[in-house]
Design goal:
181 residues, alpha/beta, Rossmann fold, five-stranded parallel beta sheet, 47% helix
Length: 181
């Protein structure tokens, strides 16, 4: 378990599958004391054979929201790693943050479709984060219609070339005065 933070922070990641959210979350959690809540891992812990139904989705995210509230309340910072493609699905996180007096840092991820296809092919071949997400190109394409701009202030990561700067900016915002390890 990472160390407690004073004050605790909430970093909300959003973006289509294969855009780099989990890579970013892993990098952030390796540099700062964050509990990394990942929707893919949570789903696999809660559901023996995921079907990705609406009911299953509600169950996974209800559990993640309860965990987020509990960790933040107990003084732990959280990086919430999920697609979070529109404001409606982010509203419960905003409510938790407001309830606990935590200002969420929202980071939106995009990537060129050719890069996403390459990453998904690597996943299928067991390279990289193969054990994390089951999302393939069909899931990406289906979810793309729900991807909406983030109307609140946020950081934008347009691809791998933006990750280092986004990590540095995140660290500046969540741990002022401390540098990236």
């Amino acid at each position: 378990m990472p160390a407690r933070s004073d004050p605790p922070r909430l970093v909300v990641l959003c973006g289509l599958p294969g855009t780099g959210k989990s890579h970013f979350a892993r990098e952030l959690a390796s540099r700062a004391p964050f509990v990394w809540l990942n929707s893919d891992r949570t789903r696999k812990l809660l559901v023996a054979r995921p079907q990705y139904s609406r009911r299953e989705h509600r169950r996974v995210f209800a559990a993640m929201h309860v965990l987020t509230r509990g960790y933040l309340r107990d003084g732990y910072s959280v990086v919430f790693d999920a697609t979070n493609l529109n404001e409606n699905v982010r509203l419960p996180l905003y409510a938790v943050a407001e309830e606990l007096g935590v200002e969420p840092l929202i980071i939106r991820f995009t990537a060129h479709p050719d890069l996403v296809r390459k990453r998904m092919a690597e996943r299928e071949n067991g390279v990289g984060d193969a054990g994390q997400s089951d999302a393939g190109w069909e899931v990406y394409s289906r979810m793309a219609v729900a991807d909406a701009p983030v109307p609140r202030p946020h950081l934008l990561v347009r691809g791998p070339e933006d990750v280092a700067e986004a990590l540095a900016e995140t660290m500046r915002r969540v741990r002022p005065g401390q540098t990236l390890r």
